[in-house]
Amino acid sequence: MDKHLCAATKLIELLQSNTFSTTLDLDLDSSFTKLVYHRMIPKNNDKTVICHQDKIEVKQEGKKDLTIFARWQDVDTSTLYEVDHSIEKAGKTISNSCNRVYLVFPKSDNFKKHINILHTGIKEDEQIKLVPYSFSFCSNRSNKISA
């Protein structure tokens, strides 16, 4: 038997055995946050945009102007139950450091428009907003990869 074929056969047997895990874990929230961040930079070239592990901060003249939490999660606008935790986190962020917090989720059939959230303790000049993120840039001709 060919030396390379023998090595490949052993590798396949190892991968199929119960002693070796072949799963791949992806953190979709982190990946989505990075995507939103990279799409924001060109549109905010007069501001400082900083990507952290779980959020994006936009600063203008050294002052926090906006905090964005991007989450890969379906949103049903009839209940909003699924995003309660994110809304609570946004409320804490407003009370600690920033006047505007956007919670960004993928756009879907049930979530097509921005939603302003009224939250206990939020002042008139503060804002929490649910924002649907569209992937329309993927279908633009200029962004398609040619073969």
Q: What is the fold's blueprint, element by element?
A:
Elements: H1 3-16, H2 28-40, E1 48-51, E2 56-60, E3 63-70, H3 84-96, E4 100-106, E5 115-117, E6 127-133
Parallel strand pairs: 3-4, 4-6
Antiparallel strand pairs: 1-2, 2-3, 5-6
Structure summary:
With 147 residues, this protein is α/β, with parallel strands linked by helices. The protein contains three helices and six strands.
Characterise the protein shown here.
The structure is a single chain. By secondary structure, this protein is α/β, with parallel strands linked by helices. The chain has a single domain, classed as 3-Layer(aba) Sandwich (Trna Endonuclease, Chain: A, domain 1). 27% of the residues lie in helices and 23% in strands. It contains three helices and six strands; from the N terminus they run H-H-E-E-E-H-E-E-E. Strand 3, helix 3 (84-96) and strand 4 (100-106) form a beta-alpha-beta unit. The longest helix has 14 residues, at 3-16. It is elongated, with a radius of gyration of 21 Å. The two termini are 38 Å apart.
**Assembly form of the protein:** single chain
User: What string, H for helix and E for strand, traces the elements in order?
Assistant: HHEEEHEEE
Highest-level CATH class: Alpha Beta
Largest sheet entry: 6 strands, mixed
Class per helix and strand makeup: alpha/beta
CATH level-3 fold name: Trna Endonuclease, Chain: A, domain 1
